Amino acid sequence: MTDNITWFSGIQIVPGLFTVENLSFAQNFLMKDDDVILVTYPRSGTHWMIEIVSLILSKGDPTWVQTVNSHTRFLWIEDKDSQKLLKGPDRPRLLATHLPIHLFPKSCFTSRAKIIYIIRNPRDVATSIYHIRKYTPNVKIPKNFEEFLNAFIHGELLYGSWFDHTLGWLTRRNTENFLLMSYEELQKDLRGNMQKLCQFLGNHLSPEQLDSVVQNSSFSVMKDNKMSNSIRLKNPEDETDSNVPLLRKGRCGDWKNHFTVTQSEAFDKIYQEKMSSLDPGLFPWS
Ligand code: A3P
Q: What UniProt keywords apply to this chain's record, in alphabetical order (predicted)?
């Protein structure tokens, strides 16, 4: 673990993950009308949605998700490895990013590219990141949950502040070609939300094909699928590779097992202050 992190416009540059040049490539990326781009703050259900969209586009046939890694099915616009592939001619392109809106390619907003933005209860996001951080090379490991929560609240994480990310992206919520989904609603009604997604993407699936999407994107099936439940990260210090598992508990409300009453009250107060400009009805958590 090193502490040689620098900041770039509100997000952290961590050696081995991306560089300022990669961010500049992402910012100037030319979006096409038929691109589909999935945008999330980390640990909000990105890989779940990658699986769902992959299965919808395969009409429920699981072959693609069983044979091709999720990071090849969707290319990350800020990832230096996928940037080589993004220069190729493949269309339509399936893209993903954790970038906040101010670092996102402006070309998207003048194109007809479709954006899917997923939100998740920030308390569960914080809990989930806390558990995955130990696997991320070159990222400072917090001493305890209290120290980590403090960093989360102050946006001292790889992709900056959850509050800024969410507030920024939700300014697009009433625009064409923007679909807002939440981790909590996916948990509550996966099939109903898939129908919404099919409509948004312009795909029609039979009831049997939808059944297969639901089945193959379930937590238990995804957890057993190496193509969906792992990402290889290289530690630039010693060039070792590690296989990081992406699926952990897959539940709503695990934060209650981590936050103390005092931490929960303090978080609520900050949440109310920061999110006061938005209708609380937008968020399926209290
Ligand atoms: P937990 O750590 O709370 O379990 P991301 O893909 O954005 O990194 O999000 C990871 C979170 O989504 C993890 O949350 C992971 O377990 C959860 N997740 C991934 N696939 C899931 C699925 N099929 N059903 C429910 N949760 C899923």
A: Cytoplasm, Transferase
- We report the CATH number of the domain holding residue 101 as 3.40.50.300
**pTM reported for the whole predicted model:** 0.95
Pocket test for ligand 1, best of 40, 43, 182 (most atoms within 8 A of CB): 43
Helix axes of 145-153 and 122-132: crossing angle, nearest 10 degrees: 130
pLDDT by 10-residue block (mean), the chain, 286 residues: 75 83 91 95 97 96 95 91 76 91 94 97 97 76 91 94 98 96 97 96 97 97 93 64 85 97 98 96 90
What distance in angstroms lies between residue 221's CA and the mean position of ligand 1's atoms? 12
Whole-angstrom distance between the N-terminal and C-terminal Cα of the chain? 36
Contact 27, 103 (CB under 8 A): yes
Domain ranges, residue 239: 6-282
The atom number, within ligand 1, closest to the CA of 221 reads 23
Q: How many domains does the chain have?
A: 1
